[in-house]
Every structure is written in C-alpha cells, then in structure tokens.
TrEMBL record:
It comes from the Bacteria. Belongs to the oxygen-dependent FAD-linked oxidoreductase family. Gene3D superfamilies: 3.30.465.10, 3.40.462.20, Uridine Diphospho-n-acetylenolpyruvylglucosamine Reductase, domain 2. It holds the Pfam family BBE. Transmembrane segments: none annotated. Its cofactor is FAD. This is FAD-binding oxidoreductase. Residues 35-205 form the FAD-binding PCMH-type domain. InterPro entries: BBE, FAD-bd_PCMH, FAD-bd_PCMH-like_sf, FAD-bd_PCMH_sub1, FAD-bd_PCMH_sub2, FAD-linked_Oxidoreductase, Oxid_FAD_bind_N, Oxy_OxRdtase_FAD_BS. Keywords: FAD, Flavoprotein, Oxidoreductase. It comes from Nocardioides koreensis. PANTHER family: BINDING OXIDOREDUCTASE, PUTATIVE (AFU_ORTHOLOGUE AFUA_1G17690)-RELATED, FAD-BINDING PCMH-TYPE DOMAIN-CONTAINING PROTEIN.
Length: 464
C-alpha cells in the first residue's frame, strides 16, 4: 500500500489510519519503544460495533490482526506488520455503580482511568502497579497488583465481559452466559476474541492508606532478602509487597546524590486503615540502615501512579520472567549475584509476593496457574532510545543470564511477563498441561482458524 491510500471499512464509524496519515507514526507506537512495526491500517474504534466491523473486514481481506488496548505488552503484540490493528484506545469510558460496587470499563481504558473513577466513591479493584498499563491486557493474563492479596487478581474480580468473536459476533460472557468462554478469558489472554468491555467487582479501598518503598544499599541485599523472607511469612492479606533490585530512581523526593545508586527496595501497600498499615510495616522500616524511607499515608491513586515515571512510554524494554516456589538461600544468593550486573542504571528486577486471597482461590476457577507459588519475578532490561546496539545487547544478555541462573528454581511463569523471543513452550508452561489443553479446546470452539494469534498464542486443539 502506498502512502496516502485510503481504506473503507464497511459499517465502520471510527477512523482508519493508514501510512501517510499525519497520526500514523503516533498511532502505531506502543509503550515499548523497541517495537517498530508498520500495519497496513489502524482501525481506531469508537465502540463495539466498530470492533465487529473491523474484525469482519480483516477476515474478508485475510489481514493479520493485532488488538490494541493500552499497548503496554512488552512483546509489542498490540501492533503488527502489514495487517490491521484493531485499536481500542479511544474506548476508555468507566462507569461506576457505587451501590452494586461494580465498574463497567471499556476495553481501551488504562488503570488510571479506572482508579480515578472508582476512588471518587472510595472503591477500587486490583489493577496494575503502573497506572498507564491497559486494563485489557493485564486482566486477560491474570492481573497482579497491589490489592491482590486482599481482593484477588483482576480476573478474580471480573464478573462479565463483552466480546467480539472471530466471526464478528458480539456476545457476553459471564458465569451465566458462555461460561466456558468466561473461564478462558480470566487468564487465557487475547486468544478468544476482542474484549470491548469488562465489568469488575469493587471493594472499599482508601482513599488514603499506608504505602511506599524503603531502600537499602545494594551490599545489604542478602541480609534484606533473608529478613524479608521471614517478614512476609505471616503477613496479613492486606499487606502487599514488591522487592525491587536495581538503582534508586531519580525521584524528586530522593536526594540527588542517591540518584541511580545501586539499591534494594521493598515497596508495600496496606489495603486497610492507615494505623493498621503503619503497624504492619514497622519491622520492615526498622530493619538495618535504610538509605531512604518513603513509607507513609498516601492516596491510593498517587501510590498507583508513583512508579509511572520510571517506565515511561518510548523507552526500550526487554523482559524475562519466572515464578519462584520460595525465596530459598540459593535463590537469594543468585539474586544478589546477578541483580546489579546490568549496564543500564534503569534496568531492574522485581519480585512480587503472592499468597493471601490469590492462593486460596480454587485452582480450577481460572486459567491463571501461579496460585501455589510464593513469588513471581520479572527481570526488566531497560535502556534509552538513543543508546546504541551495544547497550541493547548488554541488557538483553543480562536478563537472559539472570533468568538462566534461576532455572533450577523455576516454578512456572506468569504469561504477562513473556517477551517476544520466549519459546512457545513457555506459554504451555504458564498454564500447565491440563489447563493448556482445556484452553486449546476452547480456542477450537471460539476461534478455530486462529484468527487471534498475534498474542501469547494458544493454537486450536482438540475440541472438548
């Protein structure tokens, strides 16, 4: 297709953006700046009917389909080469029912949209730890976040979804309608259709709670991790913690002389009263000799967006992930050895504490398979767009070496942490044999031609 060529999508009221359009380059850009793909058309949808029209058009023209919600997937699955991007980014409405404690969220919404609207009523549901993450991608993969130990994963709070199928039909999925599809959507990724809206259960949260990170020098890593292991053993469900290993980010509240100093942090969020939260994190704040202590009463919406500036749109990202059954001495030694070997001061590793409500949910209730592990880990290589291929090679090699060293202790992987070069077997690993076969059978039912395959793909299997 030549620049400036127009495309007419039948019964489509949105905007069809093609090469040569003044918004084309901005529209094809995603969060990960290392992704540089050129679709034939970007169908920016106004609503569900547009999505259905775009799917039917793509089928009729035999076009590769990518689906864009927030565009935050590290593998860049939201955009494809020489195909169609079904772009939901203009569909960001959030409608809160404060009496029924639910929120109806359009498929292109970001978590900041959800938090802003729900917190107006003192309510929230489990969302990502970065507020510009898309609701759709995070939810369809499982949805880990600050509230999960108290209120479950995003998928545990999903009560209904509106879906455009591979045939361009609009259906609803819930425990009462298409319950098999509803099960698959709660962790099976974007394999089964385009979700144009989600309805979530909400819970009383905040608006002010105890949250924030404590930083220690990198040389204290082993001691901090061994203390942390004991600290979280009997942690209440309300307390969620994330370990971050890398450097002190150049935040305005951090002294300039500490910027980019190698450090380990334990960030916490207590989904309860400020007073109870202060008691719950007191031992953590008093351990050793912290470099910086930023824990205190914080608005939930501010805490949800506090890390946004450390991972902005347009930087280059490369991830490796693994689940960990436990923080054994051997794992701690590997983490301490590898965490600070990155070349870029922006690279880091994060360890998420699971357990609580997540661990108590029925294993067969959703495809998400990480309920039996104590931690899930993401190793995130980060570098700037202007840095050369030498830095890119060094950072990706660091992430691979780090995850390879943890291989003997691997206990599966979270599907949302898989990058583009992860072996397809990792997708199978993310679910386990039984769940994967069930997902493949449902794929055969709802998308037998694998129309939606530009994702962490599960090919159609034997129909159940």
């Amino acid at each position: 297709m030549t620049a400036g060529t127009t495309i007419q999508i039948p019964r489509f009221r949105g905007e069809a953006i093609v090469p040569g359009h003044h918004e084309y380059d901005a529209a094809r850009a995603v969060w990960n700046g290392s992704v540089d793909r050129h679709p034939r058309v970007i169908a920016r949808c106004r609503g569900t009917a547009d999505v259905a029209s775009a799917v039917r058009f793509a089928r009729d023209c035999d076009l590769e389909i990518a689906v864009r919600g927030g565009g935050h997937n590290v593998a860049g699955t939201a955009v494809c080469d020489d195909g169609i991007v079904i772009d939901l980014s203009a569909m960001r409405e959030v409608r809160v029912d404060p009496v029924g404690r639910t929120a109806l969220v359009q498929g292109g919404a970001l978590w900041c949209d959800v938090d802003d609207q729900t917190q107006a009523y003192g309510l929230a549901t489990t969302g990502g730890i970065i507020s510009h993450t898309g609701v759709g991608g995070l939810t369809l993969g499982g949805g880990i976040g600050w509230l999960m130990r108290k209120h479950g994963l995003s998928v545990d709070n999903l009560v209904e979804a509106e879906v455009v199928t591979a045939g361009g039909e609009i259906i609803r999925a819930s425990t009462h309608e298409h319950p098999d599809l509803f099960w698959a959507l709660r962790g099976g990724g974007g394999n089964f259709g385009v979700v144009t809206s989600f309805r979530f259960a909400l819970h009383p949260v905040g608006p002010t709670l105890t949250a924030g990170p404590v930083f220690w020098a990198a040389e204290d890593t082993t001691d901090v991790l061994r203390f942390y292991r004991e600290f979280v053993t009997d942690a209440p469900d309300e307390l969620m913690t994330i370990v971050r290993l890398g450097t002190l980010p150049p935040l305005p509240v951090v002294s300039a002389e500490l910027h980019f100093r190698p450090a380990i942090a334990v960030a916490s969020c207590y989904a309860g009263s400020v007073e109870a939260g202060e008691r719950a994190v007191r031992a953590l704040r008093e351990f050793g000799a912290p470099l910086v202590d930023l824990v205190g009463p914080t608005l939930y919406v501010d805490h949800q967006s506090s890390l946004d500036g450390t991972v902005p749109h347009g930087w280059h990202y490369y991830w490796k992930g693994t689940n960990l059954a436990a923080l054994s001495d051997a794992v701690i030694d590997i983490v301490a050895e590898h965490a600070y070997e990155a070349t870029s001061p922006r690279s880091y590793a994060a360890i998420f504490h699971i357990g609580g409500t997540v661990a108590r949910a029925a294993r067969e209730a959703t495809p998400y398979s990480g309920r039996d592990v104590q931690h899930t880990m993401s190793i995130d290589a980060v570098w700037l767009p202007e840095q050369d291929d030498t830095i890119r090679a060094a950072e990706t090699a660091w992430a691979r070496s780090f995850v390879d060293a943890l291989q003997p202790h691997r206990a599966g992987v979270y599907v949302n942490f898989l990058d583009a070069d992860d072996d397809p077997s990792s997708i199978h690993e993310a679910y386990g044999d039984t769940t994967y076969r069930r997902l493949a059978a449902l794929k055969a039912k709802y998308d037998p031609k694998n129309v939606f395959h530009h994702n962490r793909n599960i090919p159609p299997g034997t129909p159940a």
